[in-house]
Amino acid sequence: MPVKTAPFDPATHGFAFPNAFVDTFATLPGGRKIQTAGRCGGMAYAALDYWHAHAPVPRWGDGLWAPSRVPPDGHWLADTIRKRLYDSFLTVSATHFVTWTLAPDDGAGVVRGVTRWTKEDQFPRVVEAVDAGTPVPLGLVVARRLDRIGDNHQVVAYGYERGADGTLTVLVYDNNSPGEEVRLTSRSHDAGWLASNGPRWRGFFVEDYDGRPPRVLTSSPAARGTTVTSDSGVRLAHAWTGLVLRADTSQYAGVADANRVMTSGSADLDELWHLVAAGGDDGPALPSVAGVPASVTSGGGAPAPLASGDAVKLRHVATGRWLTSRAGTRSPVTGQQRVDTDAVPTDDDATWRIEVDGGGTWTAGARVRLVHAASGAALHSHQHPVAPGQNEVTGFAGRDQNDWWSVLATS
Question: Are residues 180 and 312 in the same domain?
Answer without folding.
Answer: no
